[in-house]
């Protein structure tokens, strides 16, 4: 089984199809990572495609002192964040989100898993993309601060600040009744 | 609360990448490679043309007058070397053709792309 460096050499010497190895190997995590920031499947797909294309274009600059993933995931993160910045959230969307939130707040007792899921999804939608990403990587994927630094390309202190802020805004956004419900 | 955050987040799902993603990425890379090759080809042609025009300009500057004199004598025409444009005019023309024109066309193409999107 050839090593990553061998595939890189092949791509650099003109064998475009050798890049398929990297796409196959990293598409799942790149997609998950981009989705955690972008939160829309159709845009996520575009972000992942753009990130792979950027990686392909910049491959000659990859020094190979780290793993391909360490170099590639920050590209995905930057691309996803730039996609979020480009997006103009329509007023309709905000209204729909607010309506969903109100509706879920009405059902104050015995919230089903599916409804809880909707509420959490709405809360994540309301959070800032960077805070959302760091929070999910840390709590859901159980990544350490150092690992998040590698994946996101943010500085260590920035990750700590984002994690703290993310935790705070998540706690503020979560309705009390949901918290009580989960405690039952 | 930390454990609760995890519990809440576990409720969310990340969709799996679509099956066609790999092929779409490879298709975009192939398209990029083709475009890149075309760009390199036109760059090569540009370099050849600029080099050729420099060589022609130097030759004209060095031997232009005598060539015109010989031609005028051979064709029994009035001395054409007297009608030759000045070196400064030729230099300006050469500069326009060799440098200003490609830069101008690049600028126009960029403006066009901005106005009408990627072509």
Strand content of chain B: under 5%
Radius of gyration of chain A in whole Å, from Cα?
A: 19 Å
Major sheet size, sense and barrel closure of chain B: none
List low-confidence stretches of chain A: none
What is the share of helical residues of chain A? over 70%
Number of helices of chain B: 3
- Which term fits the overall shape of chain A? elongated
> What string, H for helix and E for strand, traces the elements of chain B in order?
HHH
Explain what you see.
The complex is a heterodimer of chains A (184) and B (119). Chain A is mainly α and 184 residues long. Chain A is built from ten helices and no strands. Chain A has helices spanning 4-12, 20-38, 41-58, 68-86, 91-106, 113-126, 129-139, 145-152, 156-173, 176-183. Chain B has 119 residues and is mainly alpha-helical. In chain B, helix 2 packs antiparallel against helix 3. Chain B is rod-shaped. Chains A and B meet through helix 2, helix 3, helix 6, helix 7 and helix 9 of A and helix 1 and helix 2 of B.
């Amino acid at each position: 089984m050839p090593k990553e460096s061998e595939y890189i050499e092949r791509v650099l010497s003109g064998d475009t199809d050798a890049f398929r190895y990297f796409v196959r190997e990293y598409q799942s995590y790149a997609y998950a990572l981009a989705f955690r920031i972008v939160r829309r499947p159709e845009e996520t797909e575009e972000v992942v495609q753009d990130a792979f294309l950027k990686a392909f274009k910049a491959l000659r600059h990859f020094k190979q002192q780290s793993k391909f993933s360490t170099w590639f995931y920050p590209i995905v993160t930057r691309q996803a964040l730039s996609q979020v910045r480009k997006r103009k959230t329509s007023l309709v969307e905000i209204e729909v989100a607010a309506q969903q939130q109100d509706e879920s707040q009405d059902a104050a007792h015995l919230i089903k898993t599916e409804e809880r899921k909707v509420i959490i999804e709405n809360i994540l939608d309301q959070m800032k993309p960077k805070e959302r990403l760091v929070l999910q990587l840390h709590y859901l994927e159980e990544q350490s601060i150092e690992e998040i630094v590698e994946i996101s390309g943010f500085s260590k202190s920035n990750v700590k600040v984002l994690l703290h802020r993310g935790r705070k805004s998540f706690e503020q956004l979560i309705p009390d009744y949901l918290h009580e419900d989960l405690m039952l | 609360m930390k454990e609760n955050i995890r519990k809440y987040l576990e409720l969310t799902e990340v969709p799996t990448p679509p099956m066609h993603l790999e092929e779409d990425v490879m298709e975009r890379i192939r398209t990029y490679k083709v475009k890149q090759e075309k760009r390199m080809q036109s760059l090569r042609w540009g370099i050849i043309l600029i080099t050729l025009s420099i060589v022609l300009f130097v030759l004209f500057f060095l031997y232009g007058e005598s060539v015109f004199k010989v031609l005028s004598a051979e064709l029994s025409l009035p001395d054409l070397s007297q009608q030759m444009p000045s070196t400064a005019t030729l230099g300006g023309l050469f500069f326009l053709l060799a440098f200003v024109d490609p830069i101008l066309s690049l600028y126009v193409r960029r403006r066009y792309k901005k106005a009408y999107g990627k072509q």
